[in-house]
Design goal:
8 helices
Length: about 400
């Protein structure tokens, strides 16, 4: 409905304006150049907002500045108000965006296409890379436990000469029951004495003990037990109990103390457990037929042999063609089988006086199982650590005669 203030356009002429007043059936329309033109209400229509926007969008560059006495003045009848309107509008609209009739022949713009174009452009800028699905708590299996020896904070000595603090680091999503004990040897037999035990939360660390420099030469072997769990549903990991051999020379070499993610000071670092290793004791979701331990190579892997001494390397890569698909338990059984075959053969042959088994450092599991076999099946044979100068830290010498 047309009323005062309505924006209208002429049916029989070009241009738009605003209705200033209405008297009867006559509306007085103010056009863009300030003139008021009387018009029958039946000769004008109200301009819809959408139609006006479309008209504005289709307008291109502004009109060239018309010359005096141009075509606009020539085409309108003399003395006509429309002549004055056209002439004045042409002059005043230079550099302005209007609904002048000069643009009526331009191709109209389809607003719906513009909207689709803008929407498509915005959509192309959105990163459509699918996000990695977040794992449920029971699917997170990261597991790593370390023992670090760090210089005491109140010392100004270098790490290889300072007193050291032992820290247990649980760098995993599992909570950890732990027991750290010192293995001792007495006349009555071997036993362990607990140093520290307790519960260690996920992603946390705990100080175990401060070792004075003089004590470090007497540690020798630590017996460590680890039981990882979560208070909710979780993938089970193996309960571990093993010996960690700590040779005194490890604490006096500066190169053994390196930068780490847990302390500002350099530390001597031991990995006690890691999710990179398969847990042979973890309960499977679907029971599987246990695989048979891989048979050791028939040809013994010797570092060197003499008339008095034979050397056998028990590293997995030395006795097995491949460890692919094997659990840590299966590899251990193959190593113990190689140990038994080599020791039985040396005892029966009677040629050597002693035999050296290179078992490596690692977690000390293989060394622990070898000692158990020696005590149970070869009680009459003596054994001791092999020469560090010749074989490094991880070797045991068995005397056959």
């Amino acid at each position: 409905m047309i009323k005062a203030g309505s924006r209208v356009k002429f049916i029989s002429d070009t241009g738009v304006g605003i209705v200033r007043s209405i008297k009867g059936n006559i509306a007085y329309v103010e056009v863009e150049d300030g003139f008021e033109i009387p018009a029958l209400i039946s000769d004008i229509v109200e301009v819809e907002i959408e139609e006006e926007n479309a008209a504005i969008v289709k307008i291109g560059p502004s009109d060239p500045k018309p010359s005096a006495g141009g075509a606009a003045s020539a085409t309108a009848p003399a003395g006509s108000p429309r002549k004055q309107k056209a002439t004045v509008r042409g002059l005043n609209n230079y550099g302005r965006v209007t609904l002048a009739d000069d643009y009526e022949d331009d191709e109209p713009i389809d607003l719906s296409k513009l909207r689709r174009s803008f929407a498509k452009s915005a959509e192309e800028q959105v990163d459509r890379t699918p996000a990695a699905p977040e794992k449920a708590p029971w699917e997170v299996t990261d597991y790593q436990v370390k023992l670090l020896f760090v210089p005491a904070p109140d010392t100004d000595k270098p790490a290889e000469a300072a007193d050291l603090e032992a820290w247990l680091v649980n760098d995993s999503s599992y909570t950890l029951f732990f027991n750290i004990a010192r293995r001792e040897q007495r006349a009555a037999g071997a036993y362990v004495r607990t140093i520290e035990s307790g519960t260690l939360n996920a992603d946390s660390k705990q100080k175990i003990k401060l070792y004075r420099r003089a004590e470090l030469a007497e540690i020798s072997t630590l017996h460590i037990s680890l039981l990882p769990y979560k208070p909710t549903a979780f993938v089970p990991r193996a309960v571990e109990a093993f010996d960690l051999e700590l040779h005194p020379l490890k604490f006096v070499r500066a190169s053994n103390f390196t930068e780490n993610d847990y302390f500002d000071a350099p530390a001597l670092e031991f990995i006690l457990a890691s999710s990179d290793e398969l847990s042979d004791n973890a309960a499977p979701v679907i029971p599987a037929t246990p695989a048979k331990p891989a048979a050791p190579k028939p040809a013994p892997a010797h570092k060197r042999s003499t008339r008095d001494e034979e050397v056998v390397d028990l590293h997995a890569e030395a006795i097995l063609d491949s460890t692919e698909g094997m659990s840590s338990g299966e590899i251990l059984q193959a190593q113990l089988a190689r140990f038994t075959v080599a020791l039985d053969g040396a005892v029966k042959s009677g040629h050597q006086r002693r035999i050296v088994f290179i078992h490596g450092v690692g977690k000390g599991k293989l060394r622990y199982e070898i000692e158990k076999l020696l005590k149970r099946n070869y009680a009459r044979l003596r054994y001791q650590d092999a020469s560090f100068a010749e074989y490094g830290y991880g070797a045991i010498m068995v005397f056959l005669k």
